[in-house]
């Protein structure tokens, strides 16, 4: 059973209830302190009078509901979402670069306790995707001075070899997350729990990866885990490492490598492939991306 918990401003309670009813959810018997309990196809959504909303369900229907129904709705009201307070000693992990054609995959684990959590809050730590590049870089340095952490930077040449070995991005991600957590636990000791932004449909994938590293700590996988400040801090450090590589490598090869995998990164790829020597492609790009596969092997010689 998968679980996703978030806090919703009371001004949006009726909007969410109406939205779910319009999407085929059915009202069930309401218990004390419950605003509504709605169910559909193996997924239930329960809103409490405290504003805490709990979504539970079987793996497949649950993920589809979160990704295609709930998240699009909440995105319109993200400014009103609160955060569930968590005072536990924990390690949060997150990655950067997995969706970028150029650059490394960067994975970071951050250890926080009550003291460091308060310091991170004062810094305004939040999901790196909501920060400018420059702010992410400067904030990462501040986080490094406060928290114990471990990062893994898989530059493209290493990433490409590991991707071929694992044959699957999620398996590679599971290995990388487990590795940074195991290294950090050796320094900090065992936390109360681990918090990871869920990246695979099969939650057991990450559980198996952690078991291989002999990590026996309660594991919490959830969507939008950046709402937990430990994961947000990890996302900022990972993003800063990724951005530093993009900047340094762009300067080194004399070509701006754009982030992402859209039109701008395609422009960078085409500019690179028009050079006389394209042998460095393995060292700057993720070779399994469709843009790379579409390039003629006759032109690239790889």
Which key phrases capture this entry?
single chain, 302 residues, alpha+beta, five-stranded mixed sheet, 12 helices, globular, six-stranded antiparallel sheet
Write the layout of secondary structure elements.
Blueprint: E1 2-8, H1 13-22, E2 26-27, E3 34-40, E4 43-48, E5 52-57, H2 59-75, E6 81-82, E7 90-96, E8 105-112, H3 114-123, H4 133-146, E9 148-154, H5 156-166, H6 169-188, E10 193-197, H7 204-212, E11 219-222, H8 229-253, H9 263-273, H10 281-284, H11 290-293, H12 297-300
Parallel strand pairs: 7-10, 10-11
Antiparallel strand pairs: 1-5, 1-6, 2-3, 3-4, 4-5, 7-8, 8-9
Helix pairs in contact: 3-4, 4-8, 6-7
Report on this structure.
By secondary structure, the protein is α+β, with helices and mostly antiparallel strands. Helices cover 46% and strands 20% of the residues. It contains twelve helices and eleven strands. It has helices at residues 13-22, 59-75, 114-123, 133-146, 156-166, 169-188, 204-212, 229-253, 263-273, 281-284, 290-293, 297-300; strands at residues 2-8, 26-27, 34-40, 43-48, 52-57, 81-82, 90-96, 105-112, 148-154, 193-197, 219-222. Strand 4 and strand 5 (52-57) form a beta hairpin. Helix 3 runs antiparallel to helix 4 and helix 6 (169-188) crosses helix 7. The longest helix is centred in the C-terminal third of the chain and has 25 residues, at 229-253. The model is unreliable at 78-84 (pLDDT under 50).
